[in-house]
Amino acid sequence: MWLPITVTRDASRSVSDVLNRATAISRESLQSRKSKGGRRSVLSSNGRDECDNDVRMVHKYYKEQQSKKTIETELQDARKQLTDVLDQLDKAKLELGNAVNEVGQMKVELDNLKRDLNREISTFTNGFQQLSTVIQDLAGAGGGGVSKSIKKSLKWRIRLDCQCIEVAPVATAPVTIKMNNFSLLRCNYEWFNYFFFTHEKGYKLCLRVFPAGYEEARERSMSVFIQHLNGPNDSNLAWPMQGTAKIQLLNQIKDKHHHQLSVSYSDNKDQMCAGQVTSNGANGMGEPHFISFDDLFKAIPNRQLLRDDCVYFRITFRQ
Hints:
- By secondary structure, this protein is of the alpha+beta class.
- 45% of the residues lie in helices and 18% in strands.
- It is built from six helices and ten strands.
- The protein starts with 14 loop residues before the first helix and ends with a strand.
């Protein structure tokens, strides 16, 4: 007779043991049916089907257990990977917080440096103005125990140290003059170039520039003036001064489209502007609004007046 097979889930028995046991029981049942009563018998088709079904159920259970184990392993790996990702996110969040703090500290340090720089510029400017006042007093003093050579040496040395004068060999017009460090000179300086002559044995001139603007043009335009000085040839020249000076702010891309100003001494009979200079002073003519900062910094194709923080002037003189 056929003995039914029951598959248990005893924790002490593995799935392979259950499969081996079920196979053995099926073989024993089949053998008993063949030898019943001492005679050979044939197992019915229903019995064979039931045996096959039991074996299939055992195989199915075994496969399900294997699939379950595989799924549990994959879930464990997924949990581990998720934990690693969360740890990396926490680490990235911490690093981002540190970076934000460092940027904040750098901003504070930059603000402090900017404040210190502005303080130094203000101190330097005030000191320069005080020195200029002292120099003017010394230069204008009648005697005072200071020789002319010492006065002149002191005056030019201070201007050189402050980068307010461009020294060049003595020349005659036309002359080309380069002004360096324009952005620095805009911090309240006035700038002179070394003197030159209108022609051989001519009038003695210099260029005077206010990079940040003069009086009403302050912070709006660059101011430019031509000043004539007390020269060695004055006794042989006609006065009031005669002629026209042309000041060009040069385009540094091509030799055209320059910005220019003409100063006519022939039409000006004012002794304050065109008269002979008899002392260490200077008379001058020019334009406070020589060029606005908008036009100076404007980007125009094939035209650049300010380049590499410097500008060029060209001065010609026609009698």
